[in-house]
């Protein structure tokens, strides 16, 4: 990531360059706007910090040229003649921020850091959109944390394998998304992907939903009906919340998995099936089997391959990326303009516990897109203490910020495999500063080193 500095005053330009380089930023400094514009492009990884009053081309004209090249490149305007009207014009014309000269070093660094983080999210989101457009088994699975990289590799490896798969993960971790990725990435992609939530079907009709029935099989069965199993022939059957399936149907499902054939309810003809079964659960099926609540033989039949799905709290480095992805989708549906990505909001997202996982994050993005706020409890306030304002203690601000900083550093180290130099660069701080913060928080790079 690069900071492009543009100012016709060489002395001011050199001062700003030194300020940013001392904080670890890569800086390109030019006195001619045209020279700076030549560096830009749709994939340029950086931000522009430019003076407003310059001969030939002023900052507003430069802003227009930059937005023509890529409307999502953050442009920070700096001027010694600022006023409210100029600041409002800057925001209205699409500037990322507006700074008055002489720029306070700390303020300049903070604005640039936020702008670079914003640009990084934009570029990563574009890469993910291209990946989704290209398809492939891993295209739907968004994230760059080690846990998600491992999940994508597992999906790519299993997509063409003719084995049944058991997905294990908490509610909202994306089990159906992974099941669809397995289907679309394999040779069965031309067949049907049939999803059935075992927990949402009443016991009285789930058997008919699975196996289908012949006319007259029971009261109200006036015509033949193809069941989910038969409809999924040639494709994939996804059984969500498999732990909720009634015991008497578990016996029948086990037989189907063993023989790959069914008989419709009320029928005598055996119908062969060529299908793949992907089951999903949020509980320990082996423990349920030990308690007599799930058939142990069915568990072992389903458990040819188990793919664990990580909860969102274990891949916090993906939160901002996922949020931007869901926010873009929500904005497109509601035809609204994107709101600025507030660093306070990003810090709140990073600190949240996400008990509802990715599904909860998507709902937050929907609310933000509609201008309804994020709906999250303040940092340090849990669901148990929310609404107890009279008795709950408020966590000191310094403690909250300290905890958020530690989490952000942990996430960055994990994503960079413990490489301190790369981590410091991506966080926009010096190696020395990062080492001091790691010592303060009791962090060791060895805990994050890639194996």
The secondary-structure element order is EHEHEHEHEHHEHEHHEHEEEHHEHHHHHH
Sum up the overall morphology in one term: elongated
**Hey, roughly how much beta strand do the residues contain?**
5-15%
What is the count of β-strands? 12
Portion in helices: 40-55%
Over the alpha carbons, how many angstroms does the gyration radius reach?
Answer: 28 Å
Average of pLDDT = 82
Side-by-side strand order of the widest sheet? 2-1-3-4-5
Strand count, sense and closure of the main sheet?
5 strands, parallel
Q: What ranges have pLDDT less than 50 throughout 5 or more consecutive residues? A: 379-392
Distance between the termini: 27 Å
Q: What is the structural class?
A: alpha/beta
Count of helix runs: 18
Domain Sigma-54 factor interaction: 141-370
Keywords: Activator, ATP-binding, DNA-binding, Nucleotide-binding, Phosphoprotein, Transcription, Transcription regulation, Two-component regulatory system
Organism: Azospirillum melinis
Modified residues (4-aspartylphosphate): 51
